Automatic annotation (TrEMBL):
Organism: marine sediment metagenome
Pfam families, alphabetized: DUF5669
InterPro entries per UniProt: CHP02647
Official protein name in the record: TIGR02647 family protein
């Protein structure tokens, strides 16, 4: 079950959220951001992980996703 390039873009965008605070959101600027980042934000919004299609805040599901992504990253980078 390989990760698609869409999944990687979504994981990279999720990793930009501050996991320790529900008060810190992000904004994906459509005129400056890479197209894959804009599309990733739209997909994460449609999946219910973020509150707006251009970023916003993490939903409870998004917070869980960030925590899991951080754990996976930690496992993959452990020596």
């Amino acid at each position: 079950m390989p990760f698609s390039s869409d999944h990687i873009a979504e994981l990279n965008l999720l990793s930009q959220f501050e996991s320790s605070s529900g008060q810190a959101g992000i904004k994906v600027h459509r005129n400056d951001a890479a197209p894959e980042t804009v599309q990733a934000a739209e997909r994460l919004f449609s999946k219910g992980l973020i509150t707006q299609n251009d970023g916003g805040y993490l939903t409870p599901l998004g917070s869980e996703g960030v925590e899991l992504a951080q754990k996976l990253h930690s496992i993959l980078t452990a020596k």
